[in-house]
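Action item from last week, closing it out:
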Amino acid sequence: MEKIVVGITGASGTVLAVRFLENLRDVEIHLVISDSARKVMSLESDYKIEYIRSLADYVYNDSDIAARISSGSFIFSTFVIIPCSSSTLAKISAGISDTLITRVATVAMKERRKFIIVPREMPFSTIMLENMLKLSRDNVIVSPAIPGYYQRPSTMDDLINFVVARVLDLAGVKNSLSPRWKDA
């Protein structure tokens, strides 16, 4: 079975991570939630950590840099950080792997695995743009949480579903969360 590793960091946008996890189908899900993400979750949502953890097959502590997913010998197809904080982005760009999330990022890049980050900041600073460019040049897919409007969204769910549908597409996961161009 295909394995996908998901990292949730301390950027705003917990709902994006939850919706992404809820829509992963026919894959083995390995989940890491940073301490900052836990704090942000409690501030911006009513999601319970137990519910989010229940959406994964395996859950790891971000401080466990010796977890099996930290090794290149652990075969996974895709690593998605959703949302990706500017701090995590900067660490990965600089080659710092001091947490499990940043260690898995290092593994994904060195092993040339599909790696998607979903920054959720606005506006982007020059440093953030340079970090994203650096990672993009290293074959990391940078997919900011920017919704489209051709589907004429009328609810927050429409906006969330648009972003998550695009990330699912990038991860190779079939979905029908949001209308496609000309289907709207």
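Closing note: The helical segments are 14-22, 35-44, 49-54, 86-94, 100-110, 126-137, 156-171.
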